[in-house]
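ok trying again, last paste got cut off:
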Amino acid sequence: MNDRPSREAETVGVYLPIVDHEFNIIAYEAAVKHVETGAEHGDFDLSGFQDNEVTDIWDYYYQYQAISSYKGTVPLLIRADGREACPEILPSATENNANIIFLLKKRNIDYDYLDLLQLNPSFALEENSEGVLAWPFSSNWTIPAFIKTFPSFIKLRSGDGDRPFIRTECIEGGDESFVDLILSPFKKLGVKFIVSGVNCKKDFDLMKYAGDGFMGSWITEQVNGNKYEIQ
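nice, full thing came through this time. structure:
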């Protein structure tokens, strides 16, 4: 995750809203933010990592705190960036029995890692750095036989850094038929696409015909302030 605490900033955990086209919250993603000390209170506490008795692995501590503190009823996406996808130390359920969905890391993932999720088959994938939809849909577009379910979500990357294939070639290029060709087979299987990096209304208007869910700084602002008027 590369989100370990630093001495220069306070580390807080936040639940980022993911909304549909009508701004109904359909899920949250547990994220880590670095803020000036005392500037912001998080949704879950990450300040006690150095003295905690649960684990000495930061990624697992983030997962444990995010799941333990979550009181929502919609699914919660948790980044599975530890050595195991679902270590035994994690809570098995939240107070409201919300669905915990593991968002698999982008790089260096293998079939054995996903195989560890068989007791909790809800997972999500992320568009990878090679500019195609996330593993295991790269290369031959097939799924290993032991995977009994498709991902609940596929998260399309924002436009920061390397330009993502879907956004650059399909969505910003304006070829809706090409987008349908790429995304429709997965949507027919019940996979929902989350568009990240929605940082202004222009981003939302540009991407909304391709996505099922949307997240980003602008989305969070609208949800927190109830500023958005449904049109």
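cool. The longest helix spans residues 176-188. The helical segments are 58-69, 111-115, 165-171, 176-188, 201-207, 217-225.
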